[in-house]
Here is the input.
Amino acid sequence: MSEKNILQDALTRLSNIAKTNKEYNAILEALSQPQSTLTSHIAIRKDNGSTAYFKAYRCRYNDLLGPTKGGIRFHQDADQSEVEALALWMTLKCAVVGVPFGGAKGAVTVDPKKLSPMELERLARAYIRAKADFIGPQLDIPAPDVYTNARIMGWMMDEYEKITRTKCPAVITGKPIAFGGSLGRDSATGRGAFLCIEALARKLGWDAKEKTVAIQGFGNGGYHCAKLLQDAGFKVVAVSDSKGGIYSKQGLDIESVYSEKQRSNTLKAVYCQHSVCEDVEHTRINNEELLALQVDILVPAALAGVINAKNVSQIQAQYIVEIANGPITAEVDGQLKEQGTHVIPDILANAGGVIVSYFEWCQNRQGEAWPEEKVYDKLAAYINSAFERAWQRYQQHDDSMRVVVYKLALQQLTEALEAHGTADYFSVN
Ligand code: GLU
Here is the structure.
């Protein structure tokens, strides 16, 4: 989008989907604005002694289904509209997969690559000092998002505990394991997307070995999904990061590419055995070329709005599985449907992260630490049952998967709204 108003885009999509069903009028009105957004101007001491100021947001979009939940991102382009759109999507995401949370999101407008590790720690702590009254284990529970990670969550939890003079691991999820983080949280977003692709493959009778995948974005979600897909026999032919991508017709060895990227911070098409790596035949491509590849499954796993009016006609993939939040702008939903491109939408495909966050919160509140296998099994149960609900409805209606999944979320939220009492209930006649 040229003018960045991502919340407006998200709300337009939501009302386009819901407006034909009168039963969604009440929930549409409830979701037409966030419940509350706390914006702050936070300061940190830089290593050179100067003071730097940053805009920091936390939006609690809607808490009908429980305490609000959602990540905090550190990104130079983050703004209030984006945070609020992301918080709306968290509301729908939690509803559709059946975790008892409302939706929230937070952000600091900062390029974290320009901060030293100690400046990053000060920023994480300053964020919590500004938001401590707005969050809490039974109120609003942050987690990692773009360019934040377990270590940052650990600093944030520690700051919250200092302010409240309590031990309170359940205030934040995605923490280091040593602070009460859950096994399996790190890979959860990628695993959730992989489980959706596996479910799709079962429904369509696919043979994994015949299916090619391109993944835009090789961060946490993209990497874990790519790895699980390769292990299951899919051919991951292309991956990219913010600097560009690599394409190899015979498929990439994801673990080799990942360890090379960790080592040199560069995406290289390599195959490694132990510590010896050799180059494999490949072509260097840019992100636009990756999105336009003729593959069976395209997985946008980076930022919002990458598939839009400018490039939608170039999309050749038959299936798009959204690991990123909002990678497709609402204005092209219709055209993708006409082109015959099926989309597994973000609020289902990337819900693995918040599902395991919910498990982490449960473990913290119960004083438990679950084995990895239990986390994986329970995650699969949540994703598979949400996928199955969506698939049943998808088979019965002429709606896209996105429309189906949105309607399931709205239905869930409507039930909660109605439990407070409806006009019929309160009418005196
Ligand atoms: N940031 C992730 C998301 O967008 C995870 C949120 C969470 O675990 O609360 O879904």
Summary: The chain has a mean pLDDT of 96.
